[in-house]
């Protein structure tokens, strides 16, 4: 279970059972650092603890972005997984299973994420994740599930459980995770994340909150996850979007997650309370859709990674999606992404934009940034 804050110190004692997976570890030895990097004995496999000082990554060859063999070597050759894993990894949407591990996995351990895409749901978080996961130095860790949902659904299972959701990585690799709900729910996620790993780099993609709400409405109508997992609280009226977002005529339902998630400044303040701005990279969703490569290149700089993604790695698929063409081709499934949105009356849109204006102004002030939908 989570550590307790005692002054500036976090007490980790109650987590020891979960973390150690049966290991004999003294209480003193348990620190956030060890939580990230410790031997994994859950699979009866001996894995070395990573050195405290990261070994430098191997040099990225200049043809890694154009020649498939060179790419596979750059991505897997120095990693914990066999080069032959590439096809399976790609087909299974970045899944890394233990049987794909190298026999000699010196310097490998399970590590929780260095970089966390916290949201925002329906602002193209999948597309950002997909483009980042291609980078030879980034390991998007998918073992059992694409989204771990630790803070919102599995926190009671403990940090040991959390760590086991990740694949193996080397110290120089950047471990990436994405759970887009985390931006707004649960409210104490920033505090818990900062306690666990205060160095976490956070990526947020924000988009027009009204369009986001419509996209979320269409999504929830289809997948109905709000029926299975509650909280967060969603009120979805199958008849129309407007009946879902207004409690009564003219009164916006602020408790409805369709609306709450887009009150960006309210959530942003909590993240800024626990993480310095230098650790948070915010992407404007519209800029990303117009020029995804430039936005990913900014993320590469933010993470201190050599540039990998190029325009030649993508192609646009009208009317609104782009597809990946390297190291293999992949387009988002149109059943899941780029869904048609319902027509929403002009007055409804207007009321919602009016509702969000103070939050947008506050966000602009907090980040000193004017987003595309505010212009
Ligand atoms: N490849 C690609 N190119 C351009 N735009 C894309 C792409 N993939 C996703 N999108 C846009 O992102 C919206 C889905 O957002 P998320 O991926 O964050 O959804 S989710 O939270 O993971 O469910 C999705 O929303 P809808 O249009 O409502 O389906 C799209 O607008």
TrEMBL record:
Gene: LOC100375884
Domain Sulfotransferase: 113-316
Name the UniProt record assigns to this protein: Heparan sulfate glucosamine 3-O-sulfotransferase 2-like
Record InterPro entries: NST/OST, P-loop_NTPase, Sulfotransferase_dom
Matches recorded under Gene3D superfamilies: P-loop containing nucleotide triphosphate hydrolases
Lineage top rank: taxon: Eukaryota
Lineage, opening ranks: Eukaryota, Metazoa, Hemichordata, Enteropneusta, Harrimaniidae
Pfam families, per database record: Sulfotransfer_1
Keywords attached to this entry: Glycoprotein, Transferase
């Amino acid at each position: 279970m989570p550590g307790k804050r005692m002054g500036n110190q976090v007490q980790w004692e109650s987590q020891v059972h979960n973390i150690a997976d049966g290991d004999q570890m003294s209480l003193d030895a348990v620190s956030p650092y060890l939580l990230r990097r410790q031997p994994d004995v859950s699979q009866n496999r001996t894995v070395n603890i990573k050195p405290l000082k990261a070994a430098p990554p191997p040099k990225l060859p200049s043809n890694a972005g154009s020649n498939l063999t060179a790419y596979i070597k750059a991505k897997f050759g120095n990693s914990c997984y066999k080069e032959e894993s590439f096809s399976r990894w790609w087909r299974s949407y970045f899944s890394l299973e233990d049987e794909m591990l190298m026999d000699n996995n010196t310097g490998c351990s399970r590590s929780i994420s260095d970089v966390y895409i916290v949201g925002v749901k329906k602002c193209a978080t999948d597309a950002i994740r997909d483009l980042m996961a291609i980078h030879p130095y980034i390991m998007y860790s998918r073992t059992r599930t694409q989204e771990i949902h630790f803070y919102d659904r599995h926190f009671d299972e403990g940090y040991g459980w959390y760590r086991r959701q990740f694949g193996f990585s080397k110290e120089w690799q950047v471990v990436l995770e994405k759970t887009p709900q985390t931006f707004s729910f649960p409210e104490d996620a920033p505090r818990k994340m900062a306690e666990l790993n205060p160095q976490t780099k956070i990526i947020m993609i924000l988009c027009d909150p009204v369009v986001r709400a419509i996209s979320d409405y269409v999504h929830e109508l289809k997948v109905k996850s709000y029926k299975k997992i509650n909280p967060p609280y969603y009120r979805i009226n199958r008849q129309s979007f407007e009946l879902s977002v207004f409690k009564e005529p003219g009164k916006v339902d602020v408790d409805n997650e369709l609306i709450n998630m887009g009150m960006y400044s309210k959530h942003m303040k909590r993240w800024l309370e626990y993480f310095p701005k230098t650790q948070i990279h915010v992407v404007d969703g519209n800029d990303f859709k117009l020029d995804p490569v430039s936005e990913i290149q900014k993320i590469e700089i933010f993470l201190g990674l050599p540039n990998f993604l190029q325009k030649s790695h993508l192609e646009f698929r009208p009317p609104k999606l782009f597809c990946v063409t390297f190291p293999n081709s992949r387009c988002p499934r149109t059943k899941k992404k780029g869904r048609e949105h319902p027509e929403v009356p002009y007055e409804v849109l207007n009321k919602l934009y009016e509702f969000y204006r103070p939050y947008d102004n506050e966000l602009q002030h907090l980040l000193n940034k004017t987003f595309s939908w505010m212009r």
